[in-house]
Amino acid sequence: MKKLFATAAFILAASTGIAAAQNWSAEIYGGVSLQDKLKYGIMSFDTDQGTTLGFGVYNTGWVQGLALGLDVMYTNVGYIGYPTSVDSTSLMLNARYAFPLGGATEAYVGAGLGAINVHYDGASAYPAFTGSDVVAGGQLELGMRYKMAAGNLFAAVKYQAAFEDARIKRETQEFHNTSVIVGYAFNF
User: What is the pLDDT of residues 92-111, one digit of tens each?
Assistant: First the structure.
């Protein structure tokens, strides 16, 4: 994980010498994690709707329409019928490509690779199984944004998944999440 953070910091630091200051944006977003089914151990359980929060920093000074950056996202969903939950914190190196739709509106697609800290909370029912594991993962994103003031208002659907199950205290925890988000990106 330390190597991932160091590599991401190096890439962002190196890009500051290449791109002008007006090619940067910082965004903040929130939304809902949709209901799903996740495997815990050998059984699958339904999850309830949850929360998603995140922020990102992007540089658009490389190729017209292309943005490269870092995305940090937190999700939380509870298992239906159990006082337990799964949350995640991810750090992704992300690339997005925008397509003008006319006027101040554009669509974009994105993909990222990075690390996901998957945390199972057994709460008071199963405290011995509470724990975390960091696994490699990726994300896909499809969104629209509208240019306004000094930034962009955006909405997107973001899918994120671990490439392998997390191993937490003798059990495996599957992780994938689909979120619907809205946010604002500040250009500078």
Answer: 999 999 999 999 999 999 99
Q: What is the largest CA-CA distance in the chain?
A: 55
Average pLDDT over residues 44-66: 95
Share of the chain above pLDDT 90, in %: 85
**Residues with Cβ < 8 Å from 186, sequence gap 6 or more?**
25, 26, 27, 150, 151
Q: Domains of the chain, with CATH numbers?
A: 2-187 (2.40.160.20)
CA 137, 139, 143 angle in degrees (round to 5)?
Answer: 170
Mean pLDDT, residues 128-145 taken together: 97
Phi, psi of 92 (to 5 degrees): -125, 140
How many Cα atoms are found within 13 Å in the side-chain-facing hemisphere of 98? 21
Model pLDDT, residue 149: 84
**Listed residue (109, 123, 117, 23) closest to 78, CA to CA:** 123
The sheet carrying 43-47 orders its strands as 43-47, 36-40, 171-173, 166-168
**Residues 5-9: contacts with CB under 8 Å, at least 24 apart:** 5/91, 8/70, 8/91, 8/93, 8/114
Question: What do you get for the CA distance between the two ends of the chain, in Å?
Answer: 29
